[in-house]
Amino acid sequence: MGEIRLENVSKRFGNFKAVDNVSLTINNGELFSFLGPSGCGKTTILRMIAGFEMPTKGRIYIENQDITELPPYKRQVNTIFQNYSLFPHMSIFENVAFGLRIKKVPEKEIKKQVHEMLDIVQMYDHKDKYPNAISGGQKQRIAIGRALINKPKVLLLDEPVAALDLKLRQRMIIELMNIHDLVGITFIYVTHDQSEAMSVSDRMTIMNKGQIIQTGQPDDIYERPNSIFSAYFIGDTNLIAGKVVGIEDEFIEIETDLQQEGNKVVLDSSCHLKVDIGTKITLSLRPEKIAISRKQPAIKSDFNILKGKIEDILYLGTHTQYIVKVGQHKFRVFNQHKRVYFDDVALDWEEDVYLFWHDIDSFVILDQENN
């Protein structure tokens, strides 16, 4: 139930192309996220699926039914907005029952279904309250319950937790995942928050300037970005530009401009795109993959070692972020606070340090413009 297919969908507002020839399939029962910066087209796609906007070009299908020109009330789709849109003059029970009353469902059945839904969203004990008497997170659960009680094939969520504070957002994301697992229908989630999308999604797509940049499981996109935009937009990364100068059975050797002795880094050849001698590439290296030490590590064939100077230190609770200058490059390094050793001396500003990482911990992005 609830497979969605977009075929060559575009949307223009005057001369502005909000969505540019997007084709995508969202599987039955998936919790699927659209992620991207403001104005990238993600909300416009959501509104076209809901029927609030019509595509300029292309078709939209739910379970092989063409819904492109159907009005919103004829689509088995419900939408949850940031502002909840609850009726302030109705009790929690009546807010959830509203859709059933519009359909003229018998009163006994309304009571049964509303009580079941309030159990699912864990709001049964609040059924007689009014929206002004409950918290933001509780309002969001009621909005979800009111949408789900109409038994849609697809639930659309447009920045559903953006109005909540950080800890409440984190709890609400877990609750959304639990509700999704209970009801089993397709959820489509729109957000600009990377951590939200990665936490909640079975799969996700990154958009920019109306186009899909990359689609996949969150861990796959994070570990194997297909572009510099993806690498930067999902989490933090360090980019190293270079050219392939050597290929062996186990290693690929990259010549870089890091201004270090040898001026080369190596990466594992078994888990990367096929490259040839002379290919220009960019390596994506996540800050948490890099070790940092004032002591030079033992030289190993599968390790990359750079020497630099700490330019800045930022304590972030769970970890410390170091900005380390290597030649003309600045590397961002995350050092997690796993344990306190009282005999350790903390690294200090302007201290000379070594950065090192395993050859499997960087990922190749082909430099398409220069190949």
Brief descriptors of the model:
371 residues, alpha+beta, Rossmann fold, OB fold (Dihydrolipoamide Acetyltransferase, E2P), 2 domains, 6-stranded mixed beta sheet, 5-stranded antiparallel beta sheet, 8 helices, elongated
What is the fold's blueprint, element by element?
Elements: E1 4-13, E2 16-26, E3 31-35, H1 42-50, E4 57-62, E5 65-66, E6 77-80, H2 92-102, H3 107-120, H4 136-148, E7 154-158, H5 166-183, E8 186-191, H6 194-200, E9 203-208, E10 211-216, H7 218-223, H8 228-233, E11 238-247, E12 251-256, E13 264-268, E14 280-285, E15 291-293, E16 303-315, E17 319-326, E18 329-336, E19 352-358, E20 362-366
Parallel strand pairs: 3-8, 3-9, 6-7, 7-8
Antiparallel strand pairs: 1-2, 1-4, 4-5, 9-10, 11-12, 11-14, 12-13, 14-20, 15-19, 16-17, 16-19, 17-18
Q: Care to describe what's here?
A:
This protein is an alpha+beta fold. The protein has 2 domains: about 5-230, P-loop containing nucleotide triphosphate hydrolases (Rossmann fold, 3-Layer(aba) Sandwich); about 235-370, OB fold (Dihydrolipoamide Acetyltransferase, E2P). The protein is about 25% helix and about 35% strand. The chain contains 8 helices and 20 strands. It has helices at about 40-50, 90-100, 105-120, 135-150, 165-185, 195-200, 220-225, 230-235, and strands at about 5-15, 15-25, 30-35, 55-60, 65, 75-80, 155-160, 185-190, 205-210, 210-215, 240-245, 250-255, 265-270, 280-285, 290-295, 305-315, 320-325, 330-335, 350-360, 360-365. A 6-stranded mixed sheet has the order 6-7-8-3-9-10, with helices on both faces. Strands 13-12-11-14-20 form a 5-stranded antiparallel sheet, with no helix packed on it. α3 (about 105-120) crosses α4 (about 135-150). The longest helix has 18 residues, at about 165-185. The chain is elongated.
